[in-house]
Amino acid sequence: MKRGPRLILLFIISLPATSIAQSFKFDLGPGKAAPGYRQVLPATSYTDAIGYGFEGAPATGVARGGKDPLRDGFVTSDKPFYFSVKIPEGNYDVKLILGDAQGSSITTVRAECRRLMIQKAITARGVFKTVSFTVHVRDSLIHPEGVRVRLKARERDYFHWDNKLTLEFNNSSPKICAIEITPNTSAATVFLAGNSTVVDQSEEPWAAWGQMIPSFFQPGKIAVANYAESGESLSGFISERRFQKILSLLKAGDYVFVEFAHNDQKQKGEGVGPWTTYTRDLRYVIGEVRKKGATPVLVTSMNRRNFDSSGYVYSTLGDYPPAMRKVAEEEKTALIDLNAKSKIMYEAWGPEQSIKAFVHYPANTFPGQDKELKDDTHFNPYGAYEIARCIVVGIRENKLPLAAMLRADLPAFDPAHPDLIAQWSWPPSPLRPPVKPDGN
To answer: What is the mean pLDDT of residues 298-321?
Structure first.
């Protein structure tokens, strides 16, 4: 009996990138490599083929000797430098060993686009310190639909859309001995939806509260996923699939913080406004987040820096903050009234002192900046940090379970008594000609 050809069906299953996340252990600098660690010398430049390495300013390796291979050498530089690792989307715990057997060290650590993780870790001569944080890494692909977030052209140069984790090491004497990166599938994720007052600002001297807030949480417990972008309105955030991207990753126990108004008030068209389209979209977001078993948190937008002749702040946001308050009340949603808290804080500073929290700089303060910067909407790093402290106050006031995940050593804060700028420390990230964010 003659048999016909057999038909073979081949099924190809596409798995999300998160299913292949792996751990990494790097022993940085010269000396003997620790067992189980990959030794990385300063000459190792990042390439996709290698999957890890240094970027930016050149770093220097220093060997100290000794019996502990993880602490017998380190990498340092007198300029900010980057270390990148190619890893799939997800949350990761990062552990760093800092210090010098024969000297002191001061290290500030940021991730992706200047996202603050470790503010200022100091070690004395011969003392080593292990610091940890949890970071969110993302790409623009939305599973399982297979579509992508509609990115703006400038976003393609951002560190946080490039399929790798980038760590920035900064301050006067950073000394990095070892790096460990481990996937974390148990941490709750705090997703941020917002505009330029929330986004991880990529350029000095701008900053926003979303890139400061990660440093306030305990490692291993919370990952902050900042999906905000400059120039966004709430309706735009939805139509560009940014909210869809959040929903694709959202799980029970997560949070979604929503702060819009500055760009929404500029929208024109029949029926567009705070009590119509804005309210409708807020209710939609709240409903979709709750379907996932996650917690929505509404955040009224902070004021612009506008003072009347008596030194009081007057609102330029119209009915958008009241509309959000009304939706929060009706939907029984947690509300952080940043609009009210920022008014208190700005007035505590006063018209003159408040300038120091915003992007106000004379010409030629930064490379390529030939004109004065005078921005009363966007913050510098000091102002962004103080706004983030107001957010922490709101988390505690709402008695969110998230409050238990804040660092135990985090001091209380009163917006009526902001931190003194003289106590603030922010070594600038590598500077490029400043580009003003959308939405000013």
So the answer is: 97
Give me the CATH topology for the region 186-423: Rossmann fold (3.40.50)
Diameter of the chain measured on Cα atoms: 102
Same CATH fold assignment for domains 20-185 and 186-423: no
The domain limits of the chain are: 20-185, 186-423
d(CA 340, CA 299): 11
Phi and psi, residue 274, nearest 5°: -65, -35
What residues have CB less than 8 Å from 411, skipping those under 6 apart?
Answer: none
Tokens of 221: 């417990």
C-alpha separations of 306 from 3, 34, 166, 314, 399 in Å? 85, 56, 37, 6, 31
**Over the stretch 117-137, which tens digit does the pLDDT of each residue have?**
999 999 999 999 999 999 999
- Could you confirm whether domain 20-185 is CATH 3.20.20.80? no
- Closest by CA to 115, choosing from 212, 230, 256, is 212
- pLDDT tens readout for residues 393-438: 999 999 999 999 999 999 999 999 999 999 999 999 987 655 566 6
Average pLDDT (250-261) is: 98
Distance CA 160, CA 210 (A): 13
Per-residue model confidence as pLDDT tens digits over 219-240: 999 999 999 999 999 999 999 9
